[in-house]
Write a structure and sequence with these properties.
This protein has one domain: ABC transporter involved in vitamin B12 uptake, BtuC (Orthogonal Bundle). By secondary structure, it is an all-alpha fold. It is built from 15 helices and no strands. The N and C termini lie close together (7 Å). Helix 3 crosses helix 9, helix 3 packs across helix 13 and helix 13 packs antiparallel against helix 14. It comes from Nocardioides conyzicola. Keywords: Cell inner membrane, Cell membrane, Membrane, Transmembrane, Transmembrane helix, Transport. It is a multi-pass membrane protein.
Length: 370
């Protein structure tokens, strides 16, 4: 068997910019930028039509409403990038809500202690999901559909049809407090920003995040490159459970009510926002800035349409259509990139270097066939 050694023509240097698109094109021709641009357009439209900044639809009420989705979307993004999914997050929200209510009302624990226990229970719920998915190798869709019913059943079984509403006023006020009086940002944005910075660093600037993307692209190849696939997936499900429990604490204090059916259906809103924000349902692709924009886009559209007296069914139709278009846009962008690449190759120089490159590729293919 013969071996071919490929060499570049003299005088040529291999560099990253020479083999990639310009930065502005890589930044603008993305689903994340499209979602951000659509969000800005909707906000300006809402400002002109329903008084977004000064009227009833303010940033304050918007962030109060979407805060649980924003929080849960952070770990959910990383879970979906690995090619998995977690449908039990809303049930963990309901379970943590019930735990906080019962531990405070019946056991007499303070809200911080009850909340800490609820977060630990949420992490255990996530660990159970992660163990079945990562180590037992069960499909995450089947596992989390089962635990969705399990955790919700436990929550309803613990509290029944009752609701705990006896919470200290200082804690319920804190859930709705503004960062600065007379400004539009609620206090819940402080822990969200802290978590967002942490998750952005983990996903986009750490070896752990690179492993997450590698798992989504090909988990077997990721294993052979040194990524601990099982441990990574396990930790992501633990984080999803813990953050969902924290969102449940906020949900309980925000509405001043702990019920077993709190946040029913919230998991579908989270997944819709993550996919709308540019994360591929097949894994291997996504960015947190697009997901945050996707959550805000859904929140702005829903709030603006409610103020315009549209029914819930119409709002769901609009959001569903946006989600379908976002999924279709992946294929469209791929086609556009291929078309642009063909145009670039067609306008390239037909020099001897091109001929040498073609000979090199042919030699490589011949060697691979042998």
């Amino acid at each position: 068997m013969s071996t071919s050694i490929l060499s570049r023509p003299e005088g040529t240097t291999r560099s990253y910019p020479a083999y990639s698109r310009p930065l502005w094109r890589r930044a603008l021709f993305t689903r994340e930028f499209a979602v951000i641009a659509l969000l800005v357009a909707v906000i300006f439209y809402s400002n002109n039509n329903v008084e977004f900044f000064d009227g009833p639809l303010t940033f304050y009420y918007l962030f109060l409403d979407i805060a649980p989705i924003l929080l849960i979307a952070l770990p959910m993004t990383m879970v979906i990038i690995t090619g998995e999914i977690d449908l039990s997050v809303a049930s963990v929200v309901g379970l943590s809500s019930v735990l906080v209510g019962q531990l405070h009302a019946d056991a007499g624990l303070s809200i911080p202690v009850a909340g800490l226990i609820a977060i630990l229970v949420g992490a255990v719920c996530g660990a159970f999901n992660g163990f079945l998915v990562a180590y037992v190798k069960l499909p995450s869709l089947a596992v989390t559909i089962g635990t969705l019913a399990l955790y919700r059943g436990i929550a309803v079984g613990l509290l029944g049809t009752k609701a705990v509403t006896d919470f200290p006023e200082k804690w319920t006020d804190l859930a709705k407090k503004r960062v600065v009086e007379d400004h539009s940002f609620p206090m819940i944005l402080v822990p969200f920003v802290v978590l967002a910075v942490l998750f952005v660093w983990m996903l986009h600037f750490s070896t752990f995040g690179r492993g997450v993307f590698e798992i989504g692209l090909n988990d077997e190849a990721a294993h052979f490159t040194g990524v601990n696939v099982a441990r990574t997936k396990f930790l992501l499900f633990v984080m999803a459970g813990a953050v969902s429990a924290f969102a449940g604490i906020y949900y309980t204090l925000r509405f001043g009510s702990a019920r077993g059916d709190n946040a029913t259906g919230l998991e579908l809103q989270v997944i819709a926002a993550v996919l709308l924000g540019g994360v591929s349902i097949f894994g291997g692709r996504g960015a947190l800035h697009g997901v945050i924009a996707g959550v805000m886009l859904i929140g702005v559209i829903s709030s603006a349409m409610r103020l315009e007296n549209y029914t819930v069914n119409v709002i769901n139709i609009v959001i569903g259509a946006l989600l379908v278009l976002s999924v279709i846009s992946t294929s469209f962008l791929g086609w556009a990139k291929q078309l642009w690449a063909r145009r670039g190759r067609g306008s390239g120089p037909s020099s001897s270097e091109t001929g040498q490159h073609r000979q090199a590729v042919a030699a490589t293919e011949s060697t691979n066939e042998r």
